[in-house]
Amino acid sequence: MPKFSANLGFLWPGLDLPAKLQAAAKAGFRTVELHWPYEMPAADLRKHLDDAGLALFGLNTPVGHAGNGDFGLAAQPGREDEFRDTFRNTLEYARKAGASAIHVMAGTVTPETRMKASDVLVGNLVHAAASAPDMTLLLEPINQRDKPGYFYSTIAEAVKIIGAVGTANVKVMFDCYHVGVTGGADDVVPRLEEFIDDIHHVQIAAVDSRAEPDEGDLDYRTVFSALERLGYEGRIGCEYKPRGDTDEGLAWVKTLGVAL
């Protein structure tokens, strides 16, 4: 049976973080994942997690300066020191909050800077992986429709980067939504089968609305069946944007024949 985590970047919008944690626990989740919780001190987050009886899977590195179009720093030439400073702070926060994984956000690049950006990303990941042997660093390909210019958009590209880094604690975050938008819904299960050994975390949302996973072109029954067949034992992150009320939308669990 799949094991799910609630991505509180999207679920229960309108609630503050402590209320989201309580809502996730009430709904039946036992694990959560976050985007950028840094406004709350890590010790306070840990206390709220403990009070709700929840474990924290992971969080994202900061995007940089969102007002300037940043969506990650790890592949930004000339900003290596900035990335390493923010990663050091993220790592400290993740450890104090009890996370076991960090999504390292590469950011957007121009065609002219791609070659240099590739070297920068690998160098930054080598540095980050060496400083965080107790943490899994995740690479998530993001589709070009939602984030034009993001450094990589396919699982194959992410796996190539992982090979260049050459450390065991850098893995793929396989977001079925992004894979489905990039290559089509029929491409999701074949990519799971091809790259399962490199995958540490899976996320789900409808293709291509990004709503609850009981609609759209991708039948998640086939995804869950494939993950079971392939021996995947990690969490499945519910990183979707609810159509309406989050609790009402959780009817997808029953529709797809699974349980939280």
Automatic annotation (TrEMBL):
The keyword Nucleus does not apply. The lineage of its organism: Bacteria, Pseudomonadati, Pseudomonadota, Alphaproteobacteria, Hyphomicrobiales. It comes from Pseudohoeflea suaedae. Keywords: Isomerase. SUPFAM superfamilies: Xylose isomerase-like. GO terms for molecular function: hydroxypyruvate isomerase activity. Residues 21-255 form the Xylose isomerase-like TIM barrel domain. The active site is at 140 (proton donor/acceptor), 239 (proton donor/acceptor). Belongs to the hyi family. This is Isomerase. InterPro entries: HyI-like, Sugar_Epim/Isomerase, Xyl_isomerase-like_sf, Xyl_isomerase-like_TIM-brl. GO terms for biological process: glyoxylate metabolic process. Pfam families: AP_endonuc_2 (PF01261).
